[in-house]
Amino acid sequence: MVGGSTMIVNFKDIYKMIGMFIVSFCAVLVSTMFLNYYLDLITVENLITTEVSQIFYEAQCSTSKVVSTVSGGCLLLTTVVLLCFDIRHYVDTRQKQLGVLKALGYTRLTIAGNFRMFGLPVFAGTALGYAFAHLLMPKLYELQNKDGYLPEVPITFHPKLCMALVLLPTIFFSILAILYSYIKLKVPALQLMREQSAYKIVPAKKDTDLPFLQELQRSNVRQKKSLIFFITFAVFCFSAMTQMSFSMDELASRMMSVMVMAIGLVLAVVTLFIATTSVIKANRKTITMMKVFGYSAKECQKAVLSGYRPWAYLGFALGTVYQYTLLKIAVTIIFKDMEGVPDYQFDLPVMLTALAVFLILYEMLMFSYTKKIEQLSVKEIMLD
């Protein structure tokens, strides 16, 4: 065992993990508001005297549990995937440094222990989300009982909820970061120092006789399968949340509608930005060599990014089905005994509007990355 410091993950690296911070913030913001409301709501159950109030009370309890479970669970899964993606990317880009440490005698566990700092973005996001949720709670409580069916629900601070939504996620993701990095570091030191990829290369099909750009496009998708999730999920969030938010005015409240829209847009932008940026960075040398051989920036962008376009469309379709199914269940099961709740039907104009907005935003993003590709220079890549 060699003495000295093995600090290989610093605050500059943590700063780049803005995606984990944003997703953690959104997850705890929504979960805190609705779980806190649920915990306060059950304290006034014995004050309910009418049948209508009882039905409204049960509907509100169910809504709080469904919203916090669905949104919190979905965002938790996203954070786990982001964490694993960031660690894998970090190991891939620091192979020489990690290989030297292993060659000097540092154990895998000692090196992996440094990755506990990957839990810091989660702590920052959950803490800020928890604090911000308490600022919004008075408005939420007011809107949830705007019809006056329930007694006044007091806002109470729940220490256990704070521990469950701030401290436990931080500990969980710190441990997960150590375990996942420990697995990823199961590579010989010499292989790391030579920067030989530990991942299997998926060979091209022997029976294909495709043009170069088309084959390169397919190869990029095969080699970067993890990014398929990010792009599909990003568009899924945009599709589901934007369409769902238009229905919230009738089924819930304007505040919930705005929250759903904001969270959907944030998730879509963050995950899509991470995915496309990672694809561009991973193909910088390929793009530069293509430019040397006379390919235009648009052709480079098409070869590198257009292979993910079908997955983006699939994400939009899945998001449409998801939001319709979720709202239909909410209306037919959760609010079935409530009077005045309109029957939810599929809204084709809203879907077409969301699709049009998605196409505009997606093409704008592709255009911006085409401009970014134009700025890549051979000298910059050769010196990297």
Summarize the structure in words:
This protein has 384 residues and is mainly alpha-helical. Helix content is 75%, strand content 0%. Helix 2 packs antiparallel against helix 3, helix 6 packs antiparallel against helix 7 and helix 13 crosses helix 15. It starts with 10 loop residues before the first helix and ends with a helix. The N terminus is likely disordered.
Describe the secondary structure blueprint for this structure:
Elements: H1 11-15, H2 18-41, H3 51-93, H4 95-103, H5 108-113, H6 120-144, H7 159-184, H8 189-193, H9 212-223, H10 225-251, H11 254-282, H12 284-292, H13 297-305, H14 309-334, H15 348-375, H16 378-383
Helix pairs in contact: 2-3, 2-6, 2-7, 2-11, 3-7, 6-7, 9-13, 10-11, 10-14, 10-15, 13-15
Keywords:
384 residues, mainly alpha, 16 helices, 0% strand, flat
* Major sheet summary line: none
What form results from the Cα inertia axes?
flat
- Strand residue content: under 5%
Estimate the mean pLDDT confidence. Answer: 76
Number of helices: 16
Distance between the termini: 32 Å
What's this model, at a glance?
The chain is mostly helical and about 375 residues long. About 75% of the residues lie in helices and about 0% in strands.
